[in-house]
Amino acid sequence: MSMIVSTKKTLQLFAGIGLLFLAACSSKDKKDPVANTDAAIVVTVATPSGNVQQGINVSGQIEASQTANISTRVMGYITLLKVKVGDHVNKGQLLATISNQDMLAKRGQTDAMIAEAQAAVSSAQKDFDRFTALYKQQSATAKELDNVTLQYNAAKARMDGAKQMRNEINAQLGYTSLTAPFSGIVIQKLADAGSMASPGMPILTIEQSGSYQVSAAVPENSINQIKQGTEAIVTIKALDKTIKGTVTQINQSSQYTGGQYIIKVSIPDNEKKGLYAGMYANVVIAVKPIIAVKAAGNSVIVPLSSIEHKDQLTGLYTISSNNTALLRWVRLGKTYGNNVEVLSGLELNERFVLKAEGKLYNGSPVRIGK
Length: 370
What we know:
conserved putative lor/sdh protein from methanococcus maripaludis s2 fold, Elongation Factor Tu (Ef-tu), domain 3, CATH 2.40.50.100, six-stranded antiparallel β-barrel, 35% strand, disordered N terminus
């Protein structure tokens, strides 16, 4: 009998402990805090079928607006080279000279030919004037006057030809004195005094000083969004400088640029101080909002900026039912400019985090901004 009573007391004791445990669990469930909305990270969400405001981001280099290779059209030894790399030159300044003794000799020959031709013209003109007077007095025949006239015209033609030969030699002599076509800086020296200069072979390279632009390459899937006059933001990391420029030139062919289309972005004059040709720049070209929905068929397209990379995995943040960030691993496909195709892991009309005003992590409270 006592054993039965003891067993009942033991069962009652365990039952009481169980009730206390359940009550504690229930109380704990009730006291679990809800995500603090005040500490929530403000995020901007989008769907693959929604509009996305974006800009085209490309890389480029600063270059001079005008560059010239200085060369000659004649062959000869370089007798004088007056500048070196880094020198400032003015428009019309003498840069180099080419040996021209043979041309000077030819010009001397043409001068002699011109003197001879002038003497022949003078003699022929006297004959022409004399026979003209005799013909008027009917003392010379028309045939004689025609012959004298022919000799006079031939003498004048020979003199004109000799003068044109001298003009040609003077033009060639001009190619032996190389001058600066504009004011600028010598950036390259490709020969030294004593070297043989060949026609078309560059000797010096000059860049126009104080006039810069950015040359950038744009992929073919983005070039149709860019127009002349479009605003562009140029960031030069080496100088920690941001400049607002304008697209001034768009190359219509990519045949010789590896499938990339070269554009030129002007830099305002008041922003050119401290710039040097060759500096790398990042260019963001503003474009109108586009619909990032279907690249092909029912493809899911999202901006590259929303993708998270961890080791070899790629993912993006979605919003859970209790307004927390949920990292979703996805598999990516082709890239379309600043967008990328999501092959799996995200539905076409599912919301994802486009950008956040703080550091997101899995489970962090979020609040959708306006």
